[in-house]
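User: what does the whole thing look like in 3D?
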Amino acid sequence: MVIRPIFDTSTVIKYRSRLKPYFRVAYFPSLVFFELVSTSINQDELKLYSDWHRYFKKDNRILSPTENDIWETAKAIRRLYINKIAPQTKLLTLRTDALIARLSVKQKDSFIVTDDIDDFLIIKREMKDLRVISADEFFA
Amino acid sequence: MSKKNGNKPEEKIPTGKELLKMFPTPKKLTPAEKRLKESFEKAMDALDRRIKEHGYPPDFRH
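Assistant: Here's the predicted 3D structure for the full assembly of 202 residues, as structure tokens:
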């Protein structure tokens, strides 16, 4: 049963005021923390992410890619490129999303909530078991 | 017995509303959840200010 949302970075930013009720069941990818923290320029914002990090870590709900995940995801992106599934410029921007997608595929009870549904539908061509819903539909 | 084809039907993905019905927010928060709520609200204001200052959406991904 898929019950655990994984929010990608753009969804975390755009829907930040509506996320909290879902934190009790969600997984949080370390990659999203990476993007959020590395671009946070404000102490309050950093404190927020630190609190989130502590909360999810304590519950063992932070997902991180293994060496094998990175290897397999790289091959998936390569196949998208070789098969000309999307323009090269688009594929360049898919790398982190593809790793997040891989984490979700491995975590059988999870699904991705994203504001960039088109990007994840491209990735889904190489990760058939990926479950993804647009943020618009999820938060409707 | 006929062999079933390998395509599994896709599992239904719940919307946010459906998820909250399955897992309603408890009325009494744990200390950790309370701390999270407070810092969430404070930081949300900071983030709003930042987005106002730097534009939306910030380029987080490339």
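In plain terms: Chain A has a mean pLDDT of 91. The helical segments of chain A are 9-14, 30-38, 43-58, 67-82, 88-92, 95-106, 117-124, 135-138.
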